[in-house]
Amino acid sequence: MSESAALIEPPSAHPLARLFDPGTVRARCAAIERSVANNVSSHFTLDKRHLPAAADRVAALTLRRYPDLRIPHPSRWRHFEAGGVDRKAELDALLAGRSVAEIARARFDLTVLSVLLDAGAGSRWSYTERQAIDAAALPVQRHASDELLALLDQAAKGPVVPATADGDTGPTAAKQPIVAEASPGAAAAVGGTPAALARSEGLGVASLRAFMAGVFSASQSDPLRADAATLKLVDPAVLRGVFQVTPANPLVGLEGRAGLVSRLGDVLAAEAARHGGEARPARLYDLLTAGGTRTQLSATELLGTVLRLLSPLFTSGSRVQGLPAGDVWPHRWAGAATGSGNDPTTGGWVPFHMLGQWLGYSLLEPLHWAGVQVSGLDDLTGLAEYRSGGLFIDCGVIVPRDPRDLARTWKASDEFIVEWRALTVTLLDELATLVRQRLGKTAEELPLGCILEGGTWAAGRELAAELRGDGAPPLRIDSDGTVF
Q1: For residue 321, is it left (φ>0), alpha (ψ between -120 and 50) or beta?
Q2: CB of 147 within 8 A of CB of 277?
Q3: How are beta strands 476-478 and 409-411 bridged, if at all?
């Protein structure tokens, strides 16, 4: 990383820095909950008598999933473990021999891309891991090359980790092209047919396999990276190949996801032109760690840096003061409070940053593996997404005033959805206290992130499956695949 890249303006200098602060997320959501509690909302009422039952369900499910209560924070890396397969070990073998910083950069590239591709998949889509990646998903500049033939030939064989003379994986391993194949026993299979992975797990594994295949790399000698020049070329045809999309296997928001990745390439290229450094998602690692020399940072700083860099991607989000703000929406009862006073310049706007916070949580492990400690993790909020939010509706805690609203299709910008998501954020904090009581843990022993992972998301999905055959959430949201 160049010296100029290290001197990029801090996230606190951004005009929307208050909206990028998780303290503002909590303050604005709390203001909206007060309006609902004061019975001035036209959309919802709250019945917190059902909150203990929701806590019972989450605590019981947490114990089933993590009997020893050694619960990690929510992370995209959990989805890479779908089916009980240690895919991280495969990636680690391919990265063997690189420096700590270079390994971290590869993991950052993967994590950023995978999270950005993680918005809801819909109930009809699935991914079959042992199927070779479609040639249409490979970088355009390599379509006519001999390397393409080698990649497709490799598809029939499964991933091979090259060995050095002593039989261990060596530095050359990372240079070998790998296609979207699973190790033997990847996901549970019936009659020899690979099992399909759906929803977030399928999206996660598909994006991991695409990354390992070099779909996002501009270097023929190093597939394990993502470069702006290649990201800018990503279109729906590329993602159809990555995610095995067909008329019989449709993926919600395909065009929106493709546009998001392409814009990521544009944003990274522009950042590199202004400040130097490599034009790849891994510049987040360099910004956060001063090129790998810094070993401590706060969760608030982590989120602010992520949002300062990536908020221009979310063109379907809001613009505040003429700037792209991302997952930030207006609400009449939001007020102007922040985590430290008032900010009238952003009054009336409610920040959620669902994907931004999900990315922040997902980067904790790559940072930890690189020797970087992140403090203040409970400053991050619960994620305002449809599984945890759906849990509160399905448990009867959040009650729509008009039941017919559950049958409508809403947009992310609708006040009804903004209010539901704000209630989700505040209720997750309250639920966490009840879950800790049931599990006999303190906030230090079981921070909010572990409650989510343990968890509220899984409980929301479990209850949705019990109540609705297709497992769909209780609310219908018209998503372009770029918000949540």
Answers
A1: left
A2: no
A3: parallel
59 contacts: CB under 8 Å, gap ≥ 6: 435, 438, 439
Give CA–CA dist 350/328, Å, rounded.
5
- How far is the C-alpha of 372 from the C-alpha of 367, rounded, in Å? 5
Look up tokens 């998780």; give the residue: 22
CA distances from 113 to 86, 146, 227, 453 (A): 20, 27, 11, 21
What's the rounded Cα separation, in Å, for the pair 125 and 197?
Answer: 9
What is the pLDDT, as a whole number, of residue 483? Answer: 65
Say if CB 425 and CB 384 are below 8 A apart. Answer: yes
Q: What is the DSSP code string of 178-228?
A: --S-PPTT-S--BTTBPPEEEHHHHHHHHHHHHHHTTTT-S-TT--SS--H
DSSP assignment of 279-338 equals SSTTHHHHHHHTTTT--EEEHHHHHHHHHHHHGGG-TTSEEETTEEEESEEE-TT--SEE
Q: How far is the C-alpha of 58 from the C-alpha of 343, rounded, in Å?
A: 36
Cα separation of 348 and 127, whole Å? 41
Quote the mean pLDDT of the chain.
86
* pLDDT for the residue 9: 52
Whether the pLDDT of residue 185 is over 90: the answer is no
Q: Is the sign of the CA dihedral 343, 425, 474, 358 positive or negative?
A: positive
**How many Å from the N-terminal Cα to the C-terminal Cα in the chain?**
32
Give residue for tokens 């602010």.
304
- Greatest Cα pair distance, the chain, in angstroms, is 73
Q: Tell me: the pLDDT tens digits for 220-272?
A: 899 999 999 999 999 999 999 999 999 999 998 899 899 999 999 999 999 99
Torsions phi, psi for 380 (to 5 deg): -65, 150
Mean pLDDT computed over 70-99: 95
Mean pLDDT over 279-297 rounds to 95
* pTM summary value: 0.84
Q: Cα separation of 328 and 319, whole Å? A: 8
**Tokens 């995978």 correspond to what residue?**
114
pLDDT in tens, 145-154: 445 445 444 4
Confidence of residue 4 (pLDDT cuts 50, 70, 90): very low
H/E segment holding residue 263: helix 254-275
Are 155 and 179 in contact by the 8 Å Cβ rule? The answer is yes
Q: What is the mean pLDDT of residues 194-219?
A: 92
